[in-house]
Amino acid sequence: MEHTIDKPFSSLTQQNKEIGLFKMIWEDINCALQRDPAARNRFEVLFNYSGLHAIWIYRVTHWLWMRKLHFLARWLSQLARWATGIEIHPGAVIGRRFFIDHGMGVVIGETAEVGQDVTLYHGVTLGGVSLEKGKRHPTLGDRVVVGAGAKILGAITIGRGSRIGANAVVVKPVPPNSVVVGVPGQVVRRTEKPTDELLDLHHDRLPDTLGEALRQVMTRLDQLEGELHVHKNGKIKPDDEGYWIGSDFSI
Prior knowledge:
Blueprint lengths: L11 H8 L1 H15 L6 H7 L1 H17 L3 H15 L2 E2 L4 E2 L4 E2 L6 E2 L4 E2 L4 E2 L4 E3 L11 E2 L4 E2 L4 E3 L3 E2 L4 E2 L4 E2 L7 E4 L4 E4 L19 H20 L8 E2 L5 E2 L6
Parallel strand pairs: 1-4, 2-5, 3-6, 4-7, 5-8, 6-9, 7-10, 8-11, 9-12, 10-13, 12-14
Antiparallel strand pairs: 14-15, 16-17
């Protein structure tokens, strides 16, 4: 299943070149102020946000990589990894207003492609699942948000406006405006239209796909037991506040 994106990723590098490095840095600082409530002013963001430092060094290493200065590009990217805890391969293609919050442990592979206004949290991996040359890392559409610890693996596309839940492992393409949770990642299509918010950062609003399936099974089991006049004691079920109770639990 393939999904289109807003702009050809082959043109992202050209778009970044046209805007200029200093204007791009200014955009990055502003987007950090918008997406991180802890950011108090531009001066603080400029000097204290390792995610932005990693992105700015990546812009330089990518410029070198595109000019076949591969060793120098990789050497600088390794210095950035040592300084920031964030590893971005110089060959990756990343759009404007890209924000890495906290950042420690983020890994972005060589053939990864990232659209505009994308946000990653710490521990995210955009990795490959093949030893073959060529495209082997994910493609993220515009306005995608990836929660802490999530792993997106393989040459798959994450559609525009989607949100990847924390610690999800995504190995299949994701349609636009979807939410992904669990291991392996379960895709949930949203029924509501996107809001006017800049980005969907509501990590507290994640569907419980396995829990809902279990509730449906338990409801059906209760119905069958009622029809057969068979009643078992010690049922495990959540109370009105959503906490699980039952005599079968031992801690």
